[in-house]
Every structure is written in C-alpha cells, then in structure tokens.
Amino acid sequence: MKSVFQSDYMRQNRRKIIFTLVLIAITALIAVYSICVTQYPISFSEAWQIVCNNLDHVIPTEYADRLKSYIVWDGLVPRAIVGILVGAILGISGAVMQSTIRNPLADPYTTGISSGALLGVTLFVLFGVTIVPDAGRDAGMFASAFVFALVPCAIIVLFSVFRKVTPTAMILIGIAVMYIFNAVTTLLRYTCSYEDSATIYSWAVGTLGKAGWSAVPFLLSVFLVLLATVMALAGSINVLASDDQAAVALGVNPQRLRIGCLIIVSLATTAAVCYTGTIGFVGLIAPHIARIFVGSNNRYLIPSSAAVGAFILIAADCLARVVGTTGVPVGVVTALVGGPLFLLILLRQKKSSW
Amino acid sequence: MNNKLIAVIVVVILVVSGAVAAIVYTQNHSSSKQTIYDIDGGLEVYGNADGDYKIDNADVQIIKDIIAGTKTLVSYPYADANYDGTVDSDDVTLVEKIINKESCTVWHVNTCSTGNYVVSTQWPITSAISTGSSNMLLLLTMAGVKDDIHGITYTSSSVPDATLFPTFSKMTSLGSSSTAISIDAASDTIKQYNVTALISDYTASTISNESEFEAAGIDVIRVDPAYVDVDAYSSQLLLIGFLFQTETQCLEIAQWETAVMKQIDEKLATVTAKVSAITTNGSTAKGAWVSGGISDYKDVITTAGATYAIPDAVVKGISGYASGAYFSSSDTWLYNYEFDYIVSIRTGGWYSGMDSSTMVQKYNSTMEYLTNTEAYENGNAYVIVGDGPIIIRIAYAATVLYPSLFTEDWANQLNQEFFEKFYDEASGSTVDFTNLYFVISKAMVDKASSA
Amino acid sequence: MKGDHGPDSGTALKSDYKSYTGRKVIFITICAVAAVLLLGLSIYIGGSDLSLGRIYELLWHHLCGWTYQKGTDDFLDDFVVWNVRLPRAIFALVAGAGLAVGGVVMQSVMKNPLADPYTTGISSGACLGVAVAVILGLSFTNAGIGSAGLVLNAFLFAVIPMILIIIIAPRAGSSTATLILAGVAISYLFNALTTLLMMSTDAETLSLVYRWQVGSLTNVKWSSVPLMFFINIGGILTVSFLAARLNILVLGDDSAKSLGLNADAMRVLCLFILSLMVASVVSYAGIIGFIGLVSPHIVRMLIDADNRFVIPASAAFGAVFLLGADIIARWLSPTDAVPVGVVLAFIGAPIFLYLIIRQKKAIW
User: Fold this and answer.
1) Do B319 and B226 share a structural domain?
2) Fewer CB within 10 Å of terminal CB in chain C, N or C?
3) DSSP structure string for B122-163
4) Which of the four pLDDT bands, split at 50, 70 and 90, describes residue C364?
C-alpha cells in the first residue's frame, strides 16, 4: 500500500516525464515540417514526396525538380537533423555545466571553447592552417575549429590536476586563457581583408547551413555517447550541485567528477560547434527553462534540457530562414530571442532554484 | 528614492541637451553648404566657367562678362574661381594665374559618398601620397602621375599587382588597411618628398582623419576611381590631370573611352530583347557575394546592355544601403529569380598570365555556391577580368552577353590598344598580350579539368 | 586582556602601521613617476623618426608660442609631436585611470571580483550606437568612422544601458546577483541587435564597425580629450571622496544601514558616475578591455583591499598600464596594425593567471 508521499512523488515524476516526451513530440513535428520552410516556394507535400523519392533512389530529370530535390534532400533534411542533435547536445552540456560549476550563468562555452574555435577558424581562413590538408574548404575549417577549441579546456584541466582549484578559480583561469586567445584572434582579424573579416565574424554568429549529410553520423554518435555518459553520472552530478563537502561525505570525489564532466561536455560541444559555429543562448537558456518544469534533479533535467535545446534551435532556425529577404543565420535569432527571454526568466524567478 | 530620481533626471537632461547641441551644430553646418553642380565629362574646378575640359581664356571672358553684367553667376556656377561667393577681379586674376601655370590655390570638387564638397588645394601638385586600392592606382597610373606618388597604403592581403603597378608594388604601406593612413607613419615620407597632397578614395570612411591631414598642411583630394559612367569617370581623370598638370594625356584617354562607349551604345541600340544577368565578385566561406543595389559591379553589367535580374529591394535588406547580399550553400533566395547569365568580375593576375590550374581554381571558387542555378547548368556562367580599366570590363561583359554583336577579338584589340597607347609608358612596364585571356567560360574549365 | 599596553607595543604598532601605509604611498608614487616617464617615452615612439632632443626642442618652442609655416619640415614635426602623439598619450593616461577606477567601483558595487566597467552593458550600447550610425546611417550628424557624429551616437547609446540599470537597481534591492544578471541580459540584447545589423551589411562596412569595436587609440586627437578628461578626472575625484562609503557598501546592505549609509542611493550614484566615465572613454576609443578587470586585482594583491587607497592606486596603475601598452603597440607597428587591447591582453592575462594560481589568502 503506497503512502500519500510515494504516490505524490511518482505523480510528479510522471509529470516530468510526460513534459519531456510531449516536448520531444512537438520538436519532431516542427523538424518534419521544417523541410519545406525556406524562401523558395515548396509545399509540404512536395517536400515529403521528394524525401520519399530520394529514399527510393528516384532521380528527377527536369531542372526545376532537381533544384527542389537539391534544396530539400541535400539542404533541409540534414539541416533539421543536425538542428535537433546540436540543440540537444548544447542543452545537455549547458545543464551539466550549470550543475557542476554551480553558476546560473555557465553555458557550454564556459571553458573557453568559443575563443579556441574562433582562433582555429581564423587561422584556417587566413592561412589555411589545418590538420586535415586538402580536404576542401569546409572540412578543413571543421578540423581546425575542433582542435583549437579544446586547448583552453586542456589548460584548465592541467591546472586543476596539479592544483586544487575552486569552481570560481576554474572560471577565472578559463577567462585568462580566453583573453589570450581572443587577443591573438583580434590581432589577426584587425588587418585582414574585409571578406575574411566578414567570414570569420559570421562563423562566430553560428549557422546550421554548413552542416550537410556528412555531419549527421558523427553528431548522432556524439549525442548518444554524451547522453549515455551523462545520464549514468546524473546521480553524482546531483550531489555535486549542492556542495563539495557534502559530495565528499556522500562518496563522490568532487574534483575528479567536475573535471570529468568538463572534459565530456567540452568534447561534445566542440564537436557540435565545429560544424555550426558558436550558436549562443541555447546552452544557457535550455536548462533554465527545463528547470522551471522539471526541477533540478539531473536525472530529469538532462533529458528535458536536451528536448528544450532541440526545440529552441529548430524553431529558431525555421524563423531565421524566412526573416527578411535573404534570411539570417540562426545565431542572430537565438540571440535576439534569448536575451530578453533570459531577462524575463531572471525577473520572474521567485523561488531560487539554486 | 529622491537621489535616484535626481540622478535619472540629471542624466535625461544631459542626454537631451547633448542631442540638442548636436542638432544645432548640424543645422549651422548644413546651412553653409552650397549646391554643387555636376559637369558630366568636364573639369570640375572652379574657374572653369564654361564647363568644358580645361581652363582657358574662354573662361576668363565669361568671368569678365559676369562682372560686366551680361552674364550671371547662376548660369555659370563655376565662374567663381576663388569660391568666395562673388565674381570679381580676384577671380580673373586667379584664372590668369592658372593659365600661366603659376603656383596658387585652386578650388575644386571632392567626390564623397556622403555628399560632394568643395576644397582648396595648393596647385600644381608635384608630390603626393595615396590610398592603394587597385582602381585608384590604375587611375593614377593612367593619368601619368605614378612618379609623383611617393607613398600608398594597402592591406597585406591586397598588395598591388606587380605587373600593372611595378613601382607601387614595391612601396611599403603607410597604414594598416587600405582606408587609413597614419600621419605619424607618413610624416617621414611627407618630409622626404615634400608631399603636399593626399589622393583618397571617395568613401567617407576612407581617410577618416581628413581634417587632421588638412590641419597638417596636406590637401586631401577625393575621387571615385570606380565610376562606371564614362562621363563621370572622365571628370575624375581630368581633375587628376589638371592637378598634376598631365592634362594632355588625361584628355586623350577620356576622349578614347568616350568613343569606345559610344561604339558600344550604338551596337546595343540594335538589341530588341535584352538578356538578364547577375554578377558576383567572388565567394568566401560565407557565400557568394551577389551584387545589386548601388554596386559598381552591377553598373558594369547594366551598362553592357543586360537587365539586372535582382531588384534593388531584395538586396537592400535591413540596412537599406546595400551593394549586394550573400548567397551560401544553404540559402535559396537566389533561385527565385530568373537570369540568363552569370557574369562575375574578379581581380587578380589577369595581366601577368594565368596558368591552367589557377584558371580552374579561380572559376570554381567563384561559382562554388552558384552551381545549382539554371544559368550555370546551361553553361552561361563566366568570369571576366576585373583588373584593368573599367571600360575594358564593360567591353568584355558585352562580349559575353551579346556574342553576336561583340567578339572577343574586338575586346582583346581594345584592351591591347589601351595599354599600348596609354598605359605601358605611364606604368613603366610593358604588358605582353600573347597567351593572355580575359574571359573564363565553363567550357574552358571543363576542357582544362578533363585534360 | 592579553598583550602589552606599554609604550613599547604602542610604538611597534605605530611603526607597523606606518610601514603599512608607507607601502601604499610608495606604490602610488612609483606609478606617478612611471606615468611621467612613459609620457616622455610615448612622445618619442612613433612612425616618424625624431630624436629625443628634437622632441624636447619642439615641445619647448611650442609652449613658448612659436609657430611654423605650413609645408615646412618643422611644421610637420611640431604637428606630429603636439597634435598626434601628445593627445594620444594624455588620453591614454586619463582613460587608463578612469577605466581602472571604474573597475574598482564596479567590483565594490557588485560585490563580485569578476565585474568590470562593462558589466552593466555600456560597451554593448556603444557598439550598437556605432553600428546604427554606420550601417543604418541614423545619427544626429554625418557619422563616418572617426567623426564627431559617431562619437555622439556611441555616447548616447552607451547611456541607455546606464538608464536601464539605474531603473532596475531599486527593484533588485540588495541582490547584486540580480543586478549583474540584468546587466548581462542587457549586454546580450544589445549585442544581438548589433549582430543583426552587422550580418545584414557588406564585408567592408562590417569590418569597419568591427575595427572600431576592437578598441584602439588611433583616432584620438585633441578634440577627443576635453570631454573625457573632465568626466574622468571629476569622476575619479568624486569616487575618491566616496571611498570610505564604498568600503561599507561591500559589507552588505544591512551593515550599511546600521552604519548610516543609504545603500541603494550609493549604488545608483556610483553606477551613474562610472557609466559616464566609461561611456566617455569608449565613445572615442572603442572597447578597451582588461584594465578595468585586472588593475584592481593587481593593486589589491600588492597593497590591500581598502578602497581609500585602492582607488588612487588603481588610477595610477591603470594610467601607467594603458600608456605602457599603447607605447608597445606603436613600437611594434608604427602603422597602427596592433590595437592596444591586444597588447593589454598579452601583458595582463599571464599576470592575471599567475596571480590566480599564486593566491594563498582569498581576497574574495
């Protein structure tokens, strides 16, 4: 015979699970509809037909049909998939970051990933520096961004391993490293040609347009590994989110767990941003929104942050595609919507979830 | 609570008064601006009363007539040679000084993106520095003044082409970008060569420290070296020629270009159905920059007789000022417009000779994001020369758009004629036209790739 | 009670305290002397090759009222020294002092070691102002890069976040965390609008606006100095008078009340002054980072955290820091290819890193 407590508790949990599932369903619907959202007139049924044709390997002959097939199958379908995956990765990373660093302002880029990746991209655009030579314009850029993005994180980890550092000190180290990277990047960007400067700037804003089918298997595996790992650690992260001393008392090594989480999150986020650029806000806001509905228990927070992140990104992308006469990159929409939303969340927050 | 209110009120007062002060300041300034009249194809120097291409006794006569009362300043706005608002004997003296080639101060029009204005310049100019865009260097070289320019500014990624500008490519840059010259860095050059003038591009953001240069005693002259309209370009050329006293050369070029343009216009008048086209000036990882709106590149295409397929409103976007928009692999807006041709105008290396792989690379990198357009699929995508004078670019564009009316041989012959007559001697290097080509077509690229 | 009350312990205490205070005075003196020396060095370094003797000759003659004819070498040399290098050096000194003091004040008001003068979003406001002026062409006067209209736009738009924060401050009450977050959110919003404008324009305009943002003293002339000079010197002096009260503010609102200080009003006043100071610097020079964040920390680690000394000491240190960085930047590239912010970061970040690692006692 269950007590009132128990049945209440289970009902609450069920509500949380339902919320997450409903959100996933909505996101999936938006993603499916998004294959016809673009500035070129294609109806949903046409787009659906194109998807089926491509799955059956039917190749159209007319130029107009080939164009539509190219737009939908080579452009919008992988874009929707990448949007969901990247949004989910950013959402999870943001949630983990905020819990382990115990700071509501933490986002996936807190370990300096954005400045590292920007430097990598700058070096590539200006000098062709990459670890994957002759791989074409985009692949080389992805590789550069990936490698350099991890350097600030590696430095933080190194310092943390050799000295005991508080979470705040970790952030400070991250900031110092970020300053140096930004300085180098600024120096290079200050005197480069106008086109290069504009290219680098727009990469930093973040867009989903560059990732094609080649990104999908990679991102999918990254997402699955991230989700599995983090869910397994969810209980320990819960403990970490309260207090370091409480963590030790409960048998968790806070230092090691924190570093471990940072590494995992950094790797996953880097994998995501090297394809899309540093899309802001999703990783910051998704956990906050999720927290409003499911509370701070990481076992529920993490999956729902993933769902919220995916939802935000795909919705923002749909909006970004049709704004103005030529569309804008998705990073602009997330920033414009995210800023006021964040302020709203802050101001309305009565009870402190911290 | 009271303190806060006070603070906010103080701030508001500060802000408002600041704004009012600024507005008042502008009002004062704009009321002193006088209307400046365009003389298309003429010398825009005050004292050139009859608006032709030179200052001579005919102008003196007109000024004397105005003093006498038989003509009015309103009909001959350029008669006020010393730009003081009245036409009197001082104007006559000044014009006579100019005719006798004595040193004096002349008044002329500076072309500027935020509005033309009138400045005074120490005349004649024998030593100057300049901004280093390739259009500017082209203008200065063809005007025959390259030896008078002792310093230029450019970015490390846009070093002047060695074939077209053998002297300029060897100069060290005086600034960190092609739009700014640091007075401190330039002062050694200025002292060494007794520089009295700075020739700058017409965009207002170029040489933003113009007033500093003027205060330091360096006259700043602004021209637009990228005018597509032949008459407007001629005015700029004549101005440089006048200031540096290479008038004969400049007049010859202006007349030659006008004749070529007339030739093109006559042939274009026979066209019944215009073709439509778009132009790009290259791609970066951000996408292809498709020109439109106020772009000079677009003007080349329309002057060569095509209709431009993208309406201005499309590229205006948010800023309302636009010379184009990016089109990347994930964009679809371009597919909404029908155009027969893509004519891309690119700079770099045309006159030094391009080997096969460079040609293929140039073409493919330009067309990278446009491969799904109908024009590209039909093989009507071309890359043409962007170095060299603008009239030549117009000619090559015309050969691509209307191959039945304009042959490539004709354009090549014009190109060679220009260099032999006007450029080789002025630049100090002779361009060898064997094995040079100025149009890259899809067919050429396919052939080279499969070979 | 333990401890001597005899004359011996009293003297020991006094001499301890004296040497303690002495250290602070020495620090400030060293900075002041360094500032003067660097001023001289700054006029010497530059693209034009002028010997030290020539420079002093020019300065002396100018002060005596000599003028030269336009077009002569003397005129140009005098122009370079007096109208190009000198205003830049003076601007660097005053701006550095102002930004450093702004950092001190912000860190005290926000009770947060990571705060810098731009925490309330002023830099984002200025950037938006510039973007609006250049890209949209909306401004009170003709605003090209480097023109007076641009400065005015940057200043006006920088003031908007200040007004927003002043309005929010009473609502945030004693929770400085909310205030910081509000500042962050405002920054995000303005940055988003700026990004929207930047992405809608062509490469050249985007690059020009970006270069403005980076922060450099290249466009500084005499006309840039007066407004910034008066606002910053006035601000620094005012804040120095309020220093004791700032100490109390850091303790918390309750302690403040019991000590007779109206914390809300104090906070608003401080934010107001510091915003004006920062806005005046940023409008002319772009976003010069680092000084506001790092100078107070360095000073606190070398002396101690009492605001009565930290403020003048930071001012002196900030002045020297910025001027020194500008000298290095110009020495590296006479054509101004190295913005001063880059040099600041390269010098400051390693120092900052070192200080974090070395920190035994917690300042915060």
Assistant:
1) no
2) N
3) EES---EEEE--HHHHHHHHHTT-GGGEEEEE--TTSPPPTT
4) very low
A202 to chain B: which residues are within 8 Å by CB?
A: 286
CATH class held by domain C23-358? mainly alpha
Q: Are residues B79 and B158 in the same domain?
A: no
CB contact under 8 A, A179 and C188: no
Task: Give yes or no: residues B296 and B250 share one domain.
Answer: no
Q: Are B240 and B96 in a shared domain?
A: no
- B269 vs chain C: nearest CA distance in angstroms? 34
Distance from CA of A272 to the nearest CA of B (A): 18
* Token duo for residue A123: 């070096």
Q: Which of C189, C338, C341 sits opposite A340 (nearest CB)?
A: C189
CB neighbours of residue B410 within 10 Å = 14
In chain A, what residues touch C200 (CB-CB under 8 Å)?
324, 328
Whether C186 and A343 lie within 8 Å, measured CB to CB = yes
Residue C219: list chain B partners with CB under 8 A: 208-209
CB burial readout B19-29, b (16+ within 10 A) else e: eeebeeebeee
Q: How many domains does chain B have?
A: 3
B257 sits in which H/E element: helix B247-268
- Distance (Å, rounded) from C-alpha B227 to C-alpha B223? 9
Q: How many domains does chain A have?
A: 1
Residues near C318 by Cβ (< 8 Å), separated by ≥ 6?
C96, C97, C98, C99, C100, C101, C103, C291, C292, C295
Which ipTM score applies to this complex?
A: 0.85
In Å, how far is A282's CA from the nearest CA of chain C? Answer: 13
pLDDT per residue as tens digits for the range A282-327: 999 999 999 988 988 889 999 999 999 999 999 999 999 888 777 8
Q: Which residue ranges make up each domain of chain C? A: 23-358
Could you tell me the residue range of the domain that residue B399 belongs to?
Answer: 271-450
- Give the pLDDT confidence of A245-274 residue by residue, as tens digits: 777 777 778 888 888 888 899 999 998 888
Single pTM value for the model: 0.88
Asked whether residue A9 is assigned to any structural domain, the reply reads no
CATH of the domain at A158: 1.10.3470.10
pLDDT over 50 at C126, yes or no? yes
* Rounded distance between C-alpha atoms, residue C336 and residue C265, angstroms: 43
